[in-house]
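Readers of this paper often ask what the protein records in our data store actually look like. Such a record has a labelled line for the sequence and another for the backbone structure tokens. The tokens are whole numbers drawn from a learned vocabulary of local backbone shapes. We quote a single record here, exactly as it is kept in our systems:
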Amino acid sequence: MSERDHVAEPKNFEPKVPVQLDPPKSDPISLDQLAKCDGTHEGYPTYVGIKGKVFDVSNNKAYSKTGQYHGKDASRALAQSSLKPEDVRPDWQDLGDKEKTVLEEWYTFFSKRYNIVGEVQGAANL
């Protein structure tokens, strides 16, 4: 079978253990507030922004320590599968279709596991 005949298997983004999520919120979250939710500030949750939506990842031990995407809208970096600090930014609309698909898959993955607690205030990347 050639590569062009390959049919991709449908992706399953359902978590292995069912997650009970709250209804998504649209509360505005300022960039300053989001930055404090980076896993290093005592008493603050850990948030990750994707496409202007803010996900609370506090209950996942993988996010308990500081990380590249914590406290930021990391849309571009996720779309590009990048860990470069300069790619951790919200703009993504100029990316190619493949990268936009990757970003949408990350958004779907997060939305099935983590509560949406708000939107980045003034976000233009929704």
In short: The chain is about 20% helix and 15% strand. The first helix runs from residue 31 to 36. The mean pLDDT is 88.
